[in-house]
Amino acid sequence: MMPSFRVHIGVSAFIGLAGAAVGITDQAWSHPVAMVAGLAGALGGLLPDLDADEGRPLRTVGIFVSLFLSIGLLYVLLWQNLSPGQVILTGAALLFVFNSAGIGAFKTLTRHRGMFHSLPAVLVWGAALAIVAFPLGRPAALRLAAVGAAGYLSHLILDAVFSLSLKTLKLWSKSRLASTTSWVMAAGLILVMLHQYSR
Predict the structure, then answer these.
(1) 92-142 per-position pLDDT tens digit
(2) Which backbone phi and psi does 24 adopt, to 5 degrees?
(3) Where are the domains of the chain?
(4) Rounded distance, CA 199 to CA 190, Å?
(5) pLDDT of residue 179
(6) Nearest 5 degrees, angle CA 120-CA 106-CA 78?
């Protein structure tokens, strides 16, 4: 037996909100950054189900990921001297591509509860957040990454508790290619993060 979608989103959203509240209380983040940290935690708890074959989790995660990526790319596009109309049209196109063709292609390359449900995936999410948030400064960025990674890890822990098995906290899977790719990505992003923060 596995926890329901509502349990996963409830716990990861709580982690995100708690992390955001602590960051604001400690004056480590401004309110907008705290909102991003809260979203990173909540989204982290949904990401392991991005490899689901079908159903509500996949649709919801697809929408969240699409919005997250679209907003990030729109932020970059705003600095490319585009008109508001061009930015809106580009954002709509990105959202469509990510939530249709992107998710479709992703589904063909993954299987449910594969390496997306693994500890190296937690490292990938945390390191990626730390790299992206680097302009905030080391303490703020690392705290944001920790909140996001905690949200991701909550999904794996809940699966382990409900199934009474530690197999969900996997380090390796039956697919050698998927396992190797996951660890290479985790190691690569961690090395990039360490290089970035050592400057």
Answers:
(1) 676 666 666 655 555 555 555 677 788 999 999 999 999 888 888 888 899
(2) -70, -45
(3) 5-53+111-198
(4) 15
(5) 86
(6) 90
